[in-house]
Design brief:
With 298 residues, this protein is mainly α. Helices cover 68% and strands 9% of the residues.
Length: 298
């Protein structure tokens, strides 16, 4: 079994456990922020399952219906994941503001402190595990999970800090502020967390719409300008895109009259030189290089 899939399976089990614990304990303790933490992990578990399915699809060979492979599914999953998280953050923000306006709620801080400590430890361990795995794999799917576990750890640490503060305020002159701690920390968490899924949605949307990355376009254009100067190509056109882990490059070259009688083997040599300069050789690269003497085919 691929290491990527094994890592995703471990993520699913861990997030299901944390999600169930968080939602149940949050409802029992009456803490909106803990329920939010549980829902955050629940969404992670669903997305991890979907990521596992995508990971298996990406290992399959292109078929009759998907002749260019399944790379396009990866950004679709990321867009869905980010959109759900944005929706959750917006909903939680509305609830937290409503809670502040209603005067907050009293919590049993000793119990919620234990919960926050346990979840922070578990999330931190999962973050360390996935980080070690992805040093070699460099998987986009695992990277998203890695970021999710980092956010989950940050959420739990923030809850631990907030609840510990509330515990210390009990019996002091500031005890009247303790009911506001839960909705206040939820408000701060949502405001801090929402930019990350927004960036995920934007990045995925650009890949779904096949928007060419500026850096990638400049690299191919610069490469072909140098090749044209070296071989005397009259002109060229190119089309590049990156979808998920797939790199798509199409190049059409207008040959000069002096290359009319070049054999196919020599043109293949030029093609191989261009391919080597582009790099990223492997199953995730889709490269097509054509030669013509007719400008209309550019």
């Amino acid at each position: 079994m691929a290491t990527e899939q094994r890592a995703l399976q471990v993520t699913i089990v861990a997030t299901v456990l944390l999600a169930g614990t968080g939602i149940a304990f949050g409802l029992f303790a009456g803490s909106q922020s803990i329920v939010f933490d549980g829902l955050f992990n629940a969404i992670d578990s669903c997305m991890a399952g979907l990521s596992l399915l995508v990971s298996r699809l990406l290992l399959k060979q292109p078929g009759r219906r998907f002749q260019r492979g399944y790379w396009h599914i990866e950004p679709m999953v990321l867009a869905l994941y980010g959109s759900v998280l944005v929706s959750l953050c917006v909903y939680a923000l509305i609830n937290s503001v409503d809670g502040l306006m209603r005067g907050g709620q009293v919590l049993a801080f000793d119990e919620v402190i234990v919960y926050a400590w346990v979840t922070a430890s578990g999330s931190g361990l999962m973050y360390g595990y996935l980080r070690r795995c992805n040093r070699r794999l460099r998987s986009e799917l695992i990277q998203i999970d890695l970021h999710s576990w980092l956010m989950s750890t940050a959420i739990s640490l923030a809850l631990l800090l907030a609840f510990s503060t509330g515990y210390l305020l009990q019996g002091s002159q500031y005890e009247a502020l303790t009911p506001y701690i839960d909705p206040l920390i939820l408000t701060l968490l949502t405001l801090v967390l929402i930019p990350a899924p927004c960036r995920t949605v934007w990045k995925a949307a650009k890949q779904i719409l096949r928007i060419t990355p500026t850096t990638l376009d400049s690299e191919i254009a610069g490469l072909m300008a140098g090749m044209s100067q070296r071989y005397g190509f009259e002109s060229f056109s190119h089309c590049v895109s990156r979808v998920g882990r797939g790199l798509f490059v199409e190049i059409h070259i207008l040959l000069p009259v002096s290359m009319n009688h070049w054999p196919v083997s020599e043109l293949d040599g030029v093609r191989a030189e261009i391919a080597a300069a582009i790099g990223s050789e492997g199953p995730n690269r889709w490269l097509a290089i054509g030669f013509t003497r007719d400008r209309r085919w550019l």
